[in-house]
# Entry
Amino acid sequence: MKNSVKLQAHKGVETEYPENTLAAFEAAGRQGYEMIELDLRMTKDDKIIVMHDSSINHTGRNADGSEIVEKIYIYDITYDEALKYDFGIHFSEEFRGTKLPLFEDVLPIAKKYGIALKIDNKLKRFKPHQLKIFFDMVNASGVKTIISCWDREIVNTVLKELPGADISFDGITDENELKYYSSLVGKDRFWVWIPIDFEMASWAPLEWFATDEQCRIIKKYAKLGIWALKDEDSFIKAAKRLSPEAAETSGNIKPDGYIK
# Structure
């Protein structure tokens, strides 16, 4: 069953390593995942970093391990200022000293293991000159990317600036929109990701959740990705029922051939 479904590591192997860190991404490559989902943000001095929230408070701690009292937004500080904080100790003492990673340091890991990077749609908050920094960096790396998009304008921009990238959408079910994007990109480079587990995706609109009919329509025009999967049993059931091309896991479902 697994051999026919690509596994995507959400924020790296976040069940075993601090999320969105080089250690989590290196583990994804070492364990055999074929795709990594990650979140990009910009610092005040236009450094592309990897972090989910707009503030550093969720995963960042002071150097002594204490919580950061004041709200600190990543776009209000420089990367050098961000390096004063610890992004591993919130997960466990073992990862004390982990620093906020630069996107440019993730690219060699992806290239080393031949992993595709699925870039979350937080890119929509990038300014035009920041998007150019991102596009130039990806083009120079030669790493396969899947760009999560949000409207027709950004799709056209991505296709122009990153001609080899795949396009990804979250939650689209309207057949006319699917048909339009598929005609632009081609079915083999167009992904649609939908949730299957309400507990793990409680923030998502109910109309996003997978039904047999939704998946049938999506698969006419795109590759189907499902998220998020909490255990092996949920993966097997969903794979049998929906026949996706890819499935996202936090690291609790392992690729074939994985040896701990």
Summary: The chain has a mean pLDDT of 94.
